[in-house]
Amino acid sequence: MQNVIIFGASGHGSVVLDCLEKEGKYNVIGFVDSFKKKGTIINGYQVLGSEFDLPFLINRFNISGGIIAIGDNWIRKQIADRIMKIVPNFSFVNTVHPKAIIGKDVLLGCGNVFMPGAIVNANSIIHDFCIINTNSSLGHDGIMDSYSSLAPSVCIGGNLKLGRFSAISLGVNVINGIEIGQHTVIGAGALVVDHFGDNVMAYGSPARIIRKRSVGEPYLSTTKKLQLSEMESFEVIPSDLSV
Hints:
Sugar O-acyltransferase, sialic acid O-acetyltransferase NeuD family, 26 strands, Rossmann fold, PglD_N, five-stranded parallel β-sheet, Trans_hexapeptide_repeat, Trimer_LpxA-like_sf, disordered C terminus, UDP N-Acetylglucosamine Acyltransferase, domain 1, 3 helices
């Protein structure tokens, strides 16, 4: 069984840990987190250090790969870039909870998380570092580009095209054949019956564009301020609607 680590020891990290444990394909060694003290115990596992400790951790624990447990799509990309700068050939694994369903001829990239009750129907394509959250369903022939996400209880018809870094929030329903651009957020509870382009916030029933979004703008409901050394700082502020 391969040894893996989880990047991010927040609540999302705990859910990813649960997926990995129940899947039973990997042996989780611990967490890597830049904002929690080394040695902190999370769900029975230690915080082993930060990303800068990776070369040492890989050698000490014979680590063969890992997964990024960061809910915000843009920040997940920043962490992936940092890891690959430190360890260029690092291997990112997928985790599929045993109560998730992956349909026939689905193509998967790397670093994806499929939570309990997630359903991905036939002929879909999931690129890299995506999240399909609890009880969300992606219809047949759907395409999720890298760093996109479906929040819990999203229901999507067939032939969705979801752009990079875009997020579909809690309880959204999307009809067949919808295209959503990059860096776009669909707010909680929306009904999507039309296409949306890049860099917009949309919600409502039916969903309508509320305003433009900037690249990397936070959308999760938290006020935690993240300071990432050698990277741009991110101040996460309350969004129009929480995912």
